[in-house]
Amino acid sequence: MEIVREEMKLLAEVDQPGSLIDNYVTQLSFVLSRKAAGLVSLQARLARFQHRLKEQEILSRKRVPR
């Protein structure tokens, strides 16, 4: 959520007369890089979770009912 606030702040700043577009582009590029890194991390976590779900499913099939 912090990244969204940061983007909104950048947009508000660049919308002002006399704002420096170069500065906006540089800062936005940094923000987008952070977002991309966050997405890669989330994808890795999701893949691990999915793998564990499959393991759990396999283990539950192997259980012998009492």
UniProtKB/TrEMBL annotation:
Q: Which domain of life is it from?
A: Eukaryota
Primary location: cytoplasm
Q: Where does it localize?
A: Cytoplasm, Cytoskeleton
Write out the entry's keywords from A to Z: Cytoplasm, Cytoskeleton, Microtubule, Motor protein
Sample GO molecular function, one term: microtubule motor activity
InterPro entries noted in UniProt:
Kinesin-like_fam
In the record, biological process GO terms are: microtubule depolymerization; microtubule-based movement
GO CC terms on record? Answer: microtubule
Protein name, entry field: Kinesin-13A isoform X2
Question: Native species of this protein?
Answer: Rhizophora mucronata (Asiatic mangrove)
